[in-house]
Amino acid sequence: MSGNFKTPNSSALAVVLLMLGVVLMRPSSVVAREHDPCQFFPNNTVIRDPDDCSRGLTCINFESVVTKNCTGSKAFFDKDKKDCVASLSDHSLCQISCVNATGTFVQDPKTCYGYYYCQDESWARHGTCPDTYHFDFATQSCIYSHVSNCTVKELNFCAIVKDGEKFNDPSSCEKYFVCKKGKLNNESCKDTYYDAVKGECVQKSKVDCANHPVPDKLCNKKSNVYVADGATCRGRFYCRAMATNYDTNPTWSQCPENRFFSEKHQACVEPLLSDCTHDRCESRNKTFVVSPTKGCRHYLHCVNGISEGEYPCGNYFFDEEAQACTTRIIEYPVCAA
């Protein structure tokens, strides 16, 4: 098997390299090929090319980089060993037969749009049809997908990545996937969010994510009002009035930079008017901001809109406007209680 490509009816169709399509909300279903498989994996994760069993990919900034092309006696890329091997323990998606098929094209078992050209009985060259096309064995060509009889195949992520490697579940900020014994498992961070770049659970404010989990019964007995998202100082859910029961799918949005959401005012307000206890450095253009710690005697050091540590003023109070500790009594809403 080889990573080289040959396309049926090549005068009319272009070769498409490394084009995999997946549903962004659930990376278990393939529906198109405009999305790179590495969009789910943290930096430096090594996976097998979902479209080519002879090729290894390394994920860098959510894009695939070809780092292994396996040929000859070691024609397969092993996702566990992360190297070229002579055979795989599971050939269900990678093994095709070119016996009595020399000079013809055969279907790729992994996809509707993939194919192999049998250069001889022991050498198959892989290729893919362009977007909106499927490979048709009967006509030995790429045909429009809407006239194809092929059923869209499901991508098994655990067939291309090593067990134990975490990867992103875009459906919610705290969720991620991990393969265990070849089975896809959905797991969640506890009181933190999953960082898709680092592949680990981190402080919520350090993750740029809009799919905040909706707390259970958030909108119960609430209609046409905004409710804090429970994770950020700017974020809010809008609870719509429903004919029956309550809104179980509220819309998330956030206040502009340098403004925090206030449930009391139902508006975006100056941060010093807000009692939000989440990361108060969020989107701020200040170097130091008051800490939620009771007494208003502590402050946070902000770096690029994220808190990098809390520091005390001792027996003094922290004056956010003056950016300094002071003897003047300070009573900001967030720390006055």
UniProtKB/TrEMBL annotation:
Q: Which residues form the signal peptide?
A: 1-32
> What Gene3D superfamilies would the database entry show?
Chitin binding domain (2.170.140.10)
Keywords tagged on the record? Signal
Report the SUPFAM superfamilies cross-referenced here.
Invertebrate chitin-binding proteins (SSF57625)
Q: Which PROSITE patterns match?
A: CHIT_BIND_II
Cite the Chitin-binding type-2 domain residue spans from the record: 95-152, 155-211, 216-278
Q: Does the keyword Signal apply?
A: yes
**Superkingdom of origin:** Eukaryota
* A family per Pfam: CBM_14
InterPro entries tied to this protein = Chitin-bd_dom, Chitin-bd_dom_sf
What is the protein's given name?
A: Peritrophin-48
List the source organism: Musca domestica (House fly)
Lineage, uppermost ranks:
Eukaryota, Metazoa, Ecdysozoa, Arthropoda, Hexapoda
